[in-house]
Amino acid sequence: MIVGGKKQVVAVLADQNLFRRFPLATTSSSPAWAIHQHTKAKAVHPDVLPATYYNSLRIFTRQKVLPGAQDVAHLDTLVPENEGEIAFSVAGATKLGGTAEARAGSGIKPRHAPNQEITIRIPERLSQTAQNAEIVGALQSVRYTPKNVGLKIESKKRTLLTAMSNKLEKWEDRGWIETPNAETLKALAAALREREAETKFAVVTRSEEGEEADRLARTGAEKQDTDQIDLQIPDHLQLRGAKLSTLSQRTAYRGIKALKEKVHRKATDENVLNTQQAVKSLFKKAPTEKLIWKSIRSKDLSRQVRNFMWKTLHGAHCIGKFWAHIPEMEDRANCQHCGGIETMEHILLECNRPGQAEIWNLAEALWRKRFSTWPTVSFGGIMGAALATFPDANGKDSQSAARLYRIIMTESMYLIWKIRCEVVIQNNGEPKTTTEIHNRWVALINERLEIDRNLTNQMRFGKQHSLPPSLVLETWKGTLLDEDKLPPL
């Protein structure tokens, strides 16, 4: 409903038939009794909810319809209609997980057909996680099986069993708001509801078919071309919106936020892409956009630094081209010292006014007290400093090294900005002396060290907000004055 140019949240009555749960059986087994799974299955047949307004009133019912796709899902069924219960082992795998280059694959191994193997590469528009790939594998298994044939879907993890037996009703009641992999889970639930025969989900930790499904999933993740997955749901199986009677204010607010179209800002997209490329160049992994935004909320960063980085990624500071179209203020677009356009990259890395060069030299000198290699400083590298990874002697990521790096980089960055603002706004362009810059940087780092030291007091700050003394000592070791005189922990 559109009223006065604004979107209004309206409630509608849902079709009561959609509340009926599909026949479902769940099985959890260990290798010791895996051959007896079928006798230990517990059937779940929830009753139809009473047709009352209390259960039927739903909001957020105007949802986007997914586009259709020519799909691997609609291949010929792999099971004759006169078969009894058949089983598929499904698995999911991901390559370069947690990065912008992640690739997920599904593996499906039919138990009734030893020579058949199915590999699927998850489309890029879907979440590239092993969990989502496993859900897709289950969806395809359902579509490969006639509706009147009993079906058992086996996997090593409890993801599918828990999702379809314990969490589905809750997710549907809240309208799938903030539910990971909602698109694929909704399609799986709809496909199961269309079935006439019983469906079982089993957890089988060890089996030949399970190992084969794992191998097929890894193969699927390696495929060059993605497989298109049709996630459209027939209208008679659509359960749109969230149940009003069970909706919390928090969830409702997030549902309203989700109705808004995401606005792409050119400056933001460019800065995020720059950060992804820089982090990949420096640390060999390109972070996702979501991971970049999460990283600038790191508790190792001060509130002022977090706010500054958020505005910087959005290009929201009043510098450079911001002033170019404001009458009588066009000259503010240029650097007072260099004369060129004053971008944030220019301020942090390029301006030859005393400040940035001296501070980065001090940061490098402190870092080299512990490490021989200093990562190249770039604008994207600074914005992605909280995503830095450094291997320790065993080849594992060093938490203390990454923490020291993000503190040095972000505090140095923010000090450069503060000095620039003082010079331009307060001192009418008069630069700071190198001695003052040096002393302020040393005082700043010592202040961060003191904050870390104080945060080790668990009695004062509590377990949740305090820092382990070992982490603080590991972070700053090799950089402290008279470190050899410190008492042991």
Automatic annotation (TrEMBL):
It comes from the Eukaryota. Residues 213-226 have a biased composition (Basic and acidic residues). One of its GO terms (molecular function) is nucleic acid binding. Residues 208-228 are annotated as: Disordered. InterPro entries: RNaseH-like_sf, RNaseH_sf. This is Reverse transcriptase zinc-binding domain-containing protein. It comes from Mycena metata. The lineage of its organism: Eukaryota, Fungi, Dikarya, Basidiomycota, Agaricomycotina.
